[in-house]
Design goal:
single chain; 10 strands; 6 helices; alpha+beta; 24% helix; YbaK protein; 174 residues
């Protein structure tokens, strides 16, 4: 007789207690209010639009965390709206670099401790200079990765920016 394990449905998985991530524990320690919001992961579609659709939120409110390397300052983090792209020239200027470029995907885990689709601006292996696109301040709360695929943190942008010692500027084209 073949034993076929039942694969739990998304609803069954979501009904279980949500495991806190390191990013969430760091916000707890800093006494910053937030919500953990789970969503269904599609390994074939890690795009922000999929996350926004799952959350029922406009893509402009769901921010992606990108890691770059500057020619003068080393690694830096850029948090931009899901419908935006990093403005490399603007980010370079704001960060005091002549040039910045995205790090290779294969280096993301080693540099940050996070994987693609689960990179959070909170709790990387080291604290890197962090830059937020100015539209983050247009919302009462924004969504960023909680540090794993399938989980977002909803948090007030001012508190997140303060916690990460972030700098706000027009670092994306939207």
């Amino acid at each position: 007789m073949i034993n076929i394990r039942k694969i739990p449905t998304f609803a069954a998985v979501m009904a279980k207690k949500i495991e806190k991530t390191n990013a969430a524990r760091l916000l707890d320690r800093a006494r910053i209010s937030y919500n953990l919001i789970p969503y269904e992961v599609d390994e074939n579609d890690l795009a922000v639009q999929h996350v926004a659709d799952c959350l029922g939120q406009p893509i402009e409110r769901v921010f992606k965390t990108l890691v770059l390397h500057g020619d003068r300052g080393g690694y830096l983090v850029c948090v931009v709206p899901g419908n935006g792209e990093v403005d490399l020239k603007a980010l370079a200027k704001l960060s005091g670099n002549k040039k910045v470029e995205m790090i290779p995907m294969k280096d993301l885990l080693a540099v940050t401790g996070y994987i693609r689709g689960g990179c959070s601006p909170i709790g990387m292996k080291k604290a890197f200079p962090t830059y937020f696109h100015s539209t983050a301040m247009d919302f009462e709360t924004i969504y960023v990765s909680a540090g794993v695929r399938g989980l977002q943190i909803e948090v007030a942008p001012a508190e997140l920016i303060s916690f990460t010692r972030g700098i706000v500027g027009d670092v994306a084209t939207v």
